[in-house]
UniProtKB/TrEMBL annotation:
It comes from Streptomyces cinerochromogenes. Pfam families: MCP-like_PDC_1. This is Cache domain-containing protein.
Length: 256
């Protein structure tokens, strides 16, 4: 069954409460994506400067990103971790690198220290994870998860990411983590205002937050191609479900 996205459907949904809720969800995450975009811009500028020197970047060059990363951690309430994750082969001195900083329990800012040696580390290949693969493959923003973030925090988290490109070449991703408990605190009151059971799903159909007891966070929603729906950004219906994309943020509001 296809997704209906005709003008009549759009006009009907535009006046209904779910459109307002989708816009509020967009606003909550847009602040996180602003932190991601600032990291992307800083990283691109840094890599351009290094290229202008006629050399490849090395891991120590990325230390220049730290003042901005620390600032974003301290000032953006939802952000629990933020940084740049290099594409394999970008850096001249190491095969893989995360310039990643996290907010500590006492409000301090601390680095993520990982062994990324492929001979020893299970974390050395991060290229298959959605937060890296989706921006690389689509060139667009992504919301990955929720998942237990064994790499960074051992917390149930979402990761928001965007591709970093230099002269048309993919260089890695800028990203930020949001603890699921903090995201749910922000959006569940909105979802509960709706008259129908509602949940938010990402481009893969994974439930990011839910006020529908039949569909818990982390579960998969079968149905249409949510990635395509996000590309069109037009509300529609599918097999009795109401689907409202959160414009600008890769999440879809799904109402049973």
């Amino acid at each position: 069954m296809g997704v209906s996205t005709g003008l009549a459907t759009v006009a009907t949904l535009a006046t209904e409460p779910e459109t307002w809720v989708a816009a509020q969800v967009c606003g909550a995450l847009e602040a996180v994506f602003e932190a991601v975009a600032a990291t992307r811009a800083d990283t691109a500028a840094l890599l351009h400067r290094v290229a202008a020197e006629g050399r490849r970047p090395v891991s120590r060059d990325l230390a220049a990103l730290r003042p901005g990363l620390h600032l974003r951690l301290r000032h953006e309430e939802l952000v629990s971790g933020v940084g740049f994750v290099a594409a394999p082969g970008l850096l001249a001195d190491v095969p893989a690198w995360l310039e990643w900083w996290q907010a500590g329990a006492e409000g301090d800012v601390r680095p993520l220290l990982l062994d990324l040696d492929p001979r020893r580390s299970a974390y050395s290949d991060y290229t298959h994870w959605d937060w890296f693969a989706l921006p690389r493959d689509t060139g667009r923003r992504a919301v990955a998860g929720p998942y237990v973030d064994y790499l960074c925090s051992d917390e149930y988290s979402l990761t928001l990411s965007e591709p970093v490109r230099i002269e048309g070449r993919f260089a890695g991703v800028a990203a930020a983590d949001v603890y699921l408990r903090h995201f749910e605190a922000a959006v569940l009151p909105l979802l509960r205002r709706l008259s129908r059971p509602a949940r938010l799903v990402n481009a893969r159909g994974r439930v990011a937050a839910s006020a529908d007891p039949a569909h818990l966070a982390g579960s998969l929603t079968k149905g249409p191609d949510f990635g395509e729906l996000l590309t069109t950004a037009r509300p529609g219906t599918y097999d009795g479900l109401r689907l409202v994309p959160c414009r600008g943020v890769p999440l879809v509001l799904v109402l049973a």
